[in-house]
Sequence to fold (646 residues):
Amino acid sequence: MRIGILGYGNLGRGVEYSIKQNPDMELVAVFTRRNPADLKINSNAKVVAIEEIEQWQDKIDVLILCGGSATDLPVQTPKYAKMFNVIDSYDNHKQIPTHFENVDEAAKEGNKLALISAGWDPGLFSLNRLYANAILPEGKDYTFWGKGISQGHSDAIRRIEGVKNAKQYTIPVEEALQSVRNSENPTFTARQMHTRECFVVVDEGADKARIEQEIKTMPNYFEPYDTTVYFITEEELNEKHGGIPHGGFVIRTGKTAGDKNHVIEYSLKLDSNPEFTSSVLVSYARAIYRLSKEGQTGCKTVFDIAPKYIISKSDEELRKTML
Amino acid sequence: MRIGILGYGNLGRGVEYSIKQNPDMELVAVFTRRNPADLKINSNAKVVAIEEIEQWQDKIDVLILCGGSATDLPVQTPKYAKMFNVIDSYDNHKQIPTHFENVDEAAKEGNKLALISAGWDPGLFSLNRLYANAILPEGKDYTFWGKGISQGHSDAIRRIEGVKNAKQYTIPVEEALQSVRNSENPTFTARQMHTRECFVVVDEGADKARIEQEIKTMPNYFEPYDTTVYFITEEELNEKHGGIPHGGFVIRTGKTAGDKNHVIEYSLKLDSNPEFTSSVLVSYARAIYRLSKEGQTGCKTVFDIAPKYIISKSDEELRKTML
Fold:
C-alpha cells in the first residue's frame, strides 16, 4: 500500500510515524506547500512540491490529507479526491454534511474513493455513539472531553492584549461523570459538565487582574464555565504544558424491560491528540485502499466501513483471535 | 422487518422486549420445543411448535436463535440457516471457527445470510478489540469481566454435595484496572485480575467447612482465584442476588512516536446480561435483513458489518446527528 501525505505538521508527522508501525504500508511521498529543499522529514519518502502532485497519481494508492479543518480541508479534500483515493480528519461537525457532498461529488467524478472525518471525534466517538444508540434505542447520550488541551480556547486567550502565550485544559467534572454512570440521567448545563484551566504567560508589566477578568467573562469560550487562571512563566509553560494531550468519554445509558439500566462507556486517554488521530487516519487509509480495490467510489465515513477492513489480519485470523 | 424467535428463555424474552423498542420490526412468531398451548408470551406473536417452522419460511425475514451455546446453537444455527436468515449469540470462543464453517456452508446451501456470535463478548467487546488493535498496532490488550454473575461458576458450586443453590460474582480487581489505565503494561496472573464471591445456600445440616473447602480448591474454576464464600439463606439469595447483572472492560494501551501512551477503554455495566445480549441480537438482525436484501449470503460476524446497517437511521441522518 503506497501512501502519500499532504501537509507536514503535527498530523503529517504522526502519520509518517504510524506508517512505520504498519508493515503493509509504505510512505512514498510527502507533498508540501513549502520549498521541498527546506523540509526535513523523518523517513526516506520523497519530499515533493504540491504543484507536482498530479504526476504522482499512478504512484500512490491513498493520499492522507493532514491539513486543518478551518481552511485547508474544505478545499483540498474535494480537489484531490478527483485525482487520488483520499482520507481526511475533517472535524467541523456542523459542516460535515456539506463537506461530504463536496467530496462525494469530486470522488465520483474522478472514479476515486474518499473517506472524511476519520479521527476520534469525529471518528471513534461517532462510532461509539452509533453502536450504543442502535443497541439501546431508549436512552441518553453524553460526551465529555478531556482532560486535554483545547487549541481553540488556548488561541482565544492568546488574542487578549498582554498575553504572550497560553494553554487551556478542558476537564470533565468527575461528579457529572459519576452521575451519568449511575444511570441518574442528569440534564447538565455546560458548567456542570466541564471546567476550564488556563495557564497564561503575560508580557512584562501586563495587568493580570484585567487579563483574568477578560478570560473569565469571554462569551461562549469561558463565561459559561468555571474557569481557573494561573499565571506562570514561559519556562514553566514549556516544561509542564508542552504536550498536546486529550481524550474524553462517550457514554450512553439506556433501559430494557422492567426498568433495567445499562451503561455503555467508551473513553480515550491520549498523550498526543494529533498522533492518535494520525493512527486512526492510517487504519482507515487501509480500508480505503481495500474498498477501492473492490471497485467502490465516492465518499464514505467511518459508519460505512466494516471493521475488518481497517486491520491487517485475515478474516480467519480475526475470528480466531479477536472474536 | 418480520422477526421470528426460536427458544423462549431469558434471551428470547429479551428479544421480544427489544423488538418493541424498535418500531421498524415486528415479532411474528415464537417457535418452541414445548407445547405451544402451555407457553404464555408477552406479545401478540404466534406461538408455534418447532416442528412447523418450515411453513414459516416466507413469513419471516430473520430468525433469531435464542438457545444456549453448549448444545442448542451448534445444531440449530446450521440447521435453520438453510431455511432462514439467522442470527445467534454463540459464545464458545474456542469453537467459533468451527461453528462459523458449519453455518457458512449451510447458509450458502440455502442461499441465506447468517450472523453468529452477536452479543457483548463475543460481540461488542470483540469489535473494540479489533478497532483498538488496528489503531494502536504496538500495544497490549486486557479484558476484565464483571462485576457480574457467572452462570458457569454458579452451576459448578451447585453441583457440590449439600449445596442447594448458589450465585457467583466475578469481580475485577480495581488495582489491576488502575495499573492498566496508567499504561504500566502489567502482566497478570488470573488471581491478580479477578476475585470471586460466592453466595451459597446449603441443605440443612450440611458441612459448611467442607463445602467452602471444595469450592475454594476447585481446579480452574476457583483455585486460581481469591475466592470468598458467604453462606446465606434461600430468602436472602432470592432477594439480593436474583438478578443477572454483568459487564466488563476491554482496554488496549499502546504507544506512538516518542513513547507517547494512549489508552482506549470500553466498558459495559449491565443490569441484565441476557436482555442486553438480546438488544445486540436485534440490532444485528436489522443488518442481516438489509444485507440479505443486497444479495449477500453465507455466514458473517460483527467484524463484517458496516456500523450503519445496525441502526434505523438514514446515512444522511447519521452523518448529521452522530458523526
Summary: Chain A touches chain B through 68 residues (CB under 8 Å). The mean pLDDT of chain A is 97.
